């Protein structure tokens, strides 16, 4: 019949309805479905009208639809379809009209697409069970993604932000909406590269803790003993679980909600050490990904430069021997690097530098450091030996030692000179006696301090009683004194009240630990040697380790295997020396 809908048009409508049937749990897709259905039904209806004669469409449609012949031929079914379609079109228009009034409050559900997989990567759609993940798969709210063993994965969000997983890591898409994104870091390491937006919040939760992006690049970590965030570009807000307040964590810092390894670094800002990032494969991989994306290429923050600066020492060569009292260090490095030689900053003249270093008699260590604007550091250690110049044989003179002293920090620094032929092969002893004892010797001393190096001409003895004593220096023979110096009188300084005492103990193997009664504001120095009563600054055959923020240290057998004497002392940065010393213990290394 020319005036009726043909079978093809009816089939088109019926097939469209079958293909677009939705279940209750897919109600979120109804808006797109209604729009497509409305368009399709309207086109079919208008096409049918075009086939009718303008003046007789309604009459013929009424006549044909309700004729006995039409109904007997199965037209009743078609009539039901047309009535349903007309009703549905009407309801769609009504729904659209109603929805227009609610658009201001509705949030659009956005997509998350898997863009990279390496190794074993699995996803879990809405808790249905883990299955293999593939590139271009779409993740929805409630879906999880994990990387097993050695692998990686990357997820791109609709706004161009990325979430990347390291090995043995897992995330869950909690909320994916145009104004709110929430992702749970269930385990391992997650790197977030977030597009800055004033219209959308971006949160990553670590159990009950929360990290809110402020348009940035950061890494969240969730392991059994450590949970926190590291910020590489811009900043984030860190909100501990039990706190109503949040802390702003700026670029170049890390903040741990939980830090079982170092509890004293928990809930505080800690500066990120660039050298550690340079050895972090996951961070280097993320840096490369960001560099390949124009949106992020110029927003790398502290990741922009992780390469330590070049440093070349032109003179002197390592293990140089000289009789000069000074030596000039010359070298090259990057133009913007800061140069330090033995902790003194040196001018950088377009990448070139030079600095004159005073030499002590004997072995001298010269430490050169180059630090670029991103905090990357390169160091080189040069050893120079100052030898006494050969001189004509002088006329015989009486062997003697001349000593003087100055009070420094929490002790007394002794300086001495040697005249004549004096045997110093077994080092020196500094003798301490009662005030006014002008005949101070080995037998009437009340205390002594051993200097093992025969080349030493100065030593600092940490004394802090506030009392006045007599002192003199002698060469040590192994059982007493050889050549004696003059006697001097010195008043010991008074120890500051920061540390009352330090108790040192041996934990196990090379590990030692200590407790402090008081506060060591500048940290402590751990000193150990095969010689008893090691001190800081160190003499020959003595090793020192600076510790702050911790109460234990690992020792090494720098002088060969054997028994080492160990002490811990309060470090005083103002004088570069030590204050209160701990008890002495021995450790076999």
From TrEMBL:
Q: Does Transmembrane show up as a keyword for this record?
A: yes
One short Pfam family name for this protein? FecR
Q: Which Gene3D superfamilies does the UniProt entry name for this protein?
A: 2.60.120.1440, Immunoglobulins
User: Can the keyword Electron transport be found in this entry's annotation?
Assistant: no
Which range is the signal sequence, renumbered to this chain?
A: none
Domain Fibronectin type-III spans what residues?
395-497
In its UniProt entry, what is this protein called? FecR domain-containing protein
Q: Which organism is it from?
A: Candidatus Dojkabacteria bacterium
